[in-house]
Amino acid sequence: MAGGNRKDVMLLRRRGHGGILAFCVASAIISTSFPTAAASYKIKQGDTLWDIAAKHHTTVAKIAKANHLSEKSVLALGKSITIPGSGAARQPNRRSAPARQMSATVHTNADAVCLRAGGSTSSRKITTMSRGTTLKVVSRNGKWAKVALSNGVCGFVYRSLLSTGPGACTPTRTTTQVASAVPSCESGSVVRTALAYRGARYARGGTSRGGFDCSGFTRHVFAQYGVSLPHSSAAQAGIGASVSRDALQAGDLVFFQTNRRGISHVGIYIGNNSFVHASNHGRGVTVDSLGSSYYAPRYRGARRVK
Q: Where would you tag: which of 75, 85, 174, 265 has the fewest CB atoms within 10 A of its CB?
């Protein structure tokens, strides 16, 4: 900080509450005059690009560009990504500081507010939120805001249904659902998404529409709901909570031992004792029964992803 700035700060500290407020504004102006260096961030379980962007006060687009990713990329656990800096120095601008707040805290100001997959009333509903649910704004798009829940799940809300500041929501059945991961409270949506890929071809190591292997398929489906799974059936068997056979719910991951190496296959339970999975080169993504002569003796358990 230049000498002149130090004197201004010392002067402000001697001026009570009004001076403190002015000091905060001055500090924001001074700090925005200098570029910040890029940082490195290691991907953790459950991270999404939207969650990371909110934590580091930047945008998904900037992180994606800095790491040569698409905004829908599935994040690899343990991989380090670059968090871009603020860029070139700018001249002080008192009006620019508030506009740089990319993760403003807001809350729902109405009952039964829908969190949607896109900025349209025709977009799929992810869940319904109670009045006073606290959210972080990731970006704004016209009359809609892209927001993140406390667990990192993202969606869109009509902006007129949001008010500034944290909410004080009394826990209810709805808010309990919102606080949990999407696959648990919206298992039907996970199943519909998974079934939409029936007929896709099998590709060893594949994680996209162009071809899936078993864990690449489950990883791809759950990534669309903000859940990052490792690309390994054995590793996925360690995620979430164990579920007994008689307590299976649609959306649970089901595991099998198809060779001598332990867990080697995974699928998504869809109800009625059936599951959808990327089977093999001859069958691709298909539906099978847990009670089939092949899979019944090879079944090794299930996990519910939180």
A: 85
Are 19 and 122 within one domain?
Answer: no
Query: Is 265 marked active-site?
Result: yes
* pTM beyond 0.70: no
- Residue type at position 172: T
Same-domain check for residues 208 and 278: yes
Q: Are residues 123 and 148 in the same domain?
A: yes
214 counts as catalytic: yes
pLDDT category at 230 given cuts 50, 70, 90 is: very high
Same domain for 204 and 255: yes
Name the domain count of the chain. 4
Instruction: Kindly report the backbone phi and psi dihedral angles of residue 10, in degrees, each rounded to the nearest multiple of 5, phi listed first.
Output: -60, -40
For residue 13, is pLDDT > 70?
A: no
Q: Are residues 262 and 298 in the same domain?
A: yes
Question: Which entry of 107, 220, 231, 277 is annotated as an active-site residue?
Answer: 277
H helical segments located in the chain: 3-13, 16-31, 49-55, 60-66, 96-99, 173-179, 182-185, 187-195, 214-223, 233-236
Catalytic-residue membership of 17:
no
DSSP 240-296: SEEE-GGG--TT-EEEE--BTTB--EEEEEEETTEEEEE--TTT-EEEEETTSTTTG
Catalytic residue among 154, 185, 214, 231: 214
